[in-house]
Every structure is written in C-alpha cells, then in structure tokens.
Amino acid sequence: MVVACSRSGKLVGAIAAMAMVAGLEVSGQPSLAQGEPEPICEEALAGAIDEIRLNHGPGSRWGILVESLGGDRTLYSREAQQYFLPASNVKLLTTAAALTHLGPDYRVRTSVYRTETGLQIVGRGDPTLTGEHLETLAQQVAAAGVTHVGELWLDASYFPGEAVNPRWQWEDVQAGYGAPANSAIVDRNEIPFTLHPQEIGEPLRVEWEREEDGSPGRWWLDNRSRTVAAEESEWLRLGRGFRDPMITIEGELAAGSEPAAVSVAQVYPNEAFLDHFWRQLQAQGLPVGSRRITEVPRLVKGVEIAAVDSPSLGSLVERTNRVSDNLYAEVLLRWLGVTASPELLSEEESSGRPLAAAERGLQVMSRVLAQLGVDEELFQVNDGSGLSRVNWVSPQALVQTLQGMARSPQGSLYRASLPVAGESGTLRHRLGDSPVAIQAKTGTIAGVSALSGYLEHREYGTLTFAIMVNQSTRSVSEQRAAIDDMVRLLTQVRPCSG
Fold first, then answer.
1. Residues 441/444/447/448 CA torsion (nearest 10 deg)
2. 466 DSSP β-pair partners
3. How far is CA 127 from CA 14, 194, 306, 332, 386, in A?
4. What distance in Å separates the CA atoms of residue 478 and residue 444, rounded to the nearest whole number?
C-alpha cells in the first residue's frame, strides 16, 4: 500500500482515495471566480465543458451525463452509455439496492446461545461491532448464570464465500480500507496505529490504538521509516504479512509535522473475533475450555442468552455514502445476498458450487436496480465498494439510479446520505463556493475520479449528473478540480434562446 503525503499533512493517494475519506480528501483550488458566477447560455454549455475536458489532457477519457430529475431534458451528454471505471460511485448502486430491498429499518443481531457443551456466538456481519459490544455480550452471559464454558464456538457461516474480493489489488487487500467483510467483524477488522515523527534521522514512533495490539509477540514490526527535515517530501508505504504477524513500515514524515493515522487489515478476522470474545469472558471470571470456529452452519440445541443489535440500515447507508466506507458497502452487498429470495437469483452454476454471499448480492443488486428503472446492460459491477478494477458503470446507469431513487419511498433518505458540497463527508472541502445546493458521491482510484449526484438549479429544478474521468495522468487534485469546474458550469447555465 502506497500513501503519499502532502506538506499540508493530509494523506492523498491510496488511503485518501478509498479509505474513510472524510477529513482526508483534498481538493484543487477553484479556477473560476469566487462569488456569484456569471451566467452562460445553455447553448454554450457543451463548449465550456469540452474546453475543461480537452485541457485536462489528451489521454483522459470522460463520461458525462446531465439530465433533469424527470429525465425529460438533457443538458450535456458524452459517452453516456459507455462503460467507465466508477471507483466509489459504485456505492450509489449498492446503497440504492440495499435501501430498496431491505428497507431502512433492517438490522442484524449478534447472538450468544447456551448449548449443551458451552456457548456458541453467531456473527451476522455487523460492521459496527466493537470490543465494547463483545464486553456487553460477556456481561450478559455472566448475568444469565453461566459459571464456566466448556466449548466456545464461533459460527462464522452467515456470509458464505470470500470475505475479500479476489479481484482487488494486492495493496488494497493489505490496507485497512480493504478489510475483510466476514460474518464476525470486530473493530472494523482493522489494526490501527499512529506514526509519529521524531528527531531528524530517527525512525517514526509507532503508537498502537489498542493496547493489546502492542503486546509483546502479537505483531512484529519491520520499521524502515525515518524522520526527515521539513523541506523534504513525505510518503508512507505499509505492508502486512499473510503468514507471519509482520507489519512493514517504510517512508518519511517531516520533523514537527502532524502524526499519520494509518491501519492494516486483519489477516484472520474470525480468529481475532473469537480471541477478543474469549478475553472478555475471561474478564468476567468465566473460564473457557476449547475454542472452535465453523464456517458451515452448525445446528445446536440452545437458547439465546445474550445479543446486541446493529444500527438501522438507514444509518449504515448514510455512513457508507457520506464518508465512502468500503467495509460498510461490502457488508450491505452480502446482506443483499443472504436475504435474497429465489426469484431474485439466477440459477447457480452447473457445477453445483454454492454462490458466495457477495456473488448472490451482485445478482440481487442488478435485479433491484432494474426495478428502479436502471438498464441492466449499462453496468457490470464486481464488488459493493468500488475498489475492484473490473467494475464497469456508464454515466447513464448512475443517473438512472439517482432518478429511480428520487421516485422511491426511500428517496429522501438516500439523497440525505450523500455528502453536501462544502459541508460534509468527502465533499466537505469541495465546491463550497457553489450558489446552489449540491449533494453527490465522490470516487477516486488511481487514474480515476468521479462525482455523481443532485444539483438544485434555480431555473431547471433538480438536475441529476454523473461525471467520470478515466485514464487520467493528472494528479488527484487536478482531476477533482476539473470535475468541480464542470459542476460550477452547471450552476451558471441558463436558458437563453427565445
């Protein structure tokens, strides 16, 4: 995983592009004048957008569609039905399908059952579960009169199949923003820590966020980093072993600069979950005999004696879109899969291999979006978050999703989940000079930037737009600046003919 650091201390590059980017994304400086913009005629809009597009670089490929909310008026269209890498704009599809299929009040339950031989804890993919929740479960177990646990089973079978998308790139799998979406998640399946600059020439100091991660023998550090002078460039590269508990730290931070909060993904999330719950039981004075994990549904005779419920799906959708949370998006996709009715699924492969939860979720997403009016031929996605480089979505599919959700009972909640320009989430530092309200989803991976959402126009009413650039050789900030300038043009356009 490579992370570039600017002298402002804001991380850009891989982590800023795909992690929980609230507070991390940076924007280019507006190239249009501040204050009330000069109006431009609708007939001149295409030329103005094309000028920005062409000045961005000859190798860049742009897909753009701007339509009225009802779809009866098109202000600009370029390659609107062609496939583009959408980055985190995929989350617009994932959250639309989840809200439509599951409803905003959907929740899952993490349960502990008393069995004939001990306890069984069943995870159902709650991405918000923390160590404090596991402590609460252990306290409930003790309050139920349990004095010892012969066998402690973790049932991690709720999400069959891969917890990590096999098409993700190597650096994404290692990074905290690419943490596995398995059935038993605790503390986001991340190992978080902070890197502190010291005196020039000294290695960066590692401060673990959780005390247990820093305990002797838990993780070995290969710390090749160093502190440099203020005028030198800053960068970080983190690696994580898959067989050995080793974290490699390379890079440079300037003396006196702000510390860098980073994380890597858990290698064995089921084992980490079970170990954490075991320690919480021990803290309650409950000795535990054997510990086992099953990824195959295990029928037991027992009663539920402890449980915690997840937040509502509506609140999870808000975080997914607002700060571009990859883990939440991948969980939403798998919930779509495990709750699917047969009519929403095509036949399983002739080999008889059962489909993974994520595969089933992708099928459900396609069917549900079709019900919203999205042409299934205009998108082909591989994950729920947008990390995959084999996601393909057209501008028209994104605009159709925005329009379809605006007509749905969940339209207000869906729109409210999007970042607000100049105010919240990944748009907090972008388009703050807009004279009208803009709510839109960002997206960034290497060579790709996207922005799709709603714009409240004073004369056209609500506009829906999707803007994507692929194959860009410009910096992330330059890509965003070009997109933002195009959006500013939309706020300036007026009907002039007649």
1. -20
2. 65, 452
3. 22, 22, 18, 9, 18
4. 12
What does the pLDDT read at residue 302?
84
Among 387, 347, 350, smallest CA distance to 179 is for 387
Residue 113: name the closest of 81, 167, 152, 72 by CA: 152
**The predicted structure's pLDDT at residue 243:** 80
Q: Are 474 and 57 in contact (CB under 8 A)?
A: yes
Please answer whether residues 111 and 166 qualify as being in contact, where contact means their C-beta atoms are separated by less than 8 angstroms: no
**Residues 386/89, Cβ–Cβ less than 8 Å:** yes
- 476 neighbors 422 (Cβ within 8 angstroms): no
Confidence of residue 348 (pLDDT cuts 50, 70, 90): low
Half-sphere exposure (CA, 13 Å, Cβ side) for 381? 34
Q: Which residues have C-beta within 8 Å of that of residue 249, sequence separation ≥ 6? A: 195, 204, 206, 221, 222, 223, 224, 225, 236, 237, 238
Query: For 413, which DSSP code?
Result: H
Residue 153, H or E segment:
strand 149-155
In this predicted model, what pLDDT tens digit does every residue of 167-190 receive, in sequence order?
999 999 999 999 999 999 999 999
Residues in the chain: 498
Tens-place pLDDT, residues 215-263: 888 889 999 999 999 999 999 999 988 888 899 999 999 999 999 999 9
**Both tokens assigned to 2:** 């490579």
Mean pLDDT of the chain: 91
- Give every CB contact of residue 260 below 8 A, 6+ residues apart in sequence: 3, 5, 11, 194, 195, 236, 253
Q: How far is CA 268 from the centre of its chain?
A: 20
Q: From the CB of residue 298, how many other CB atoms can be counted at a distance below 10 Å?
A: 14
Beta bridge partners of 420: 439
pLDDT digits (tens, 9 = 90+) for 304-342: 999 999 999 999 999 999 999 999 999 999 999 999 988
| Tokens of residue 343, six digits | 């009519």
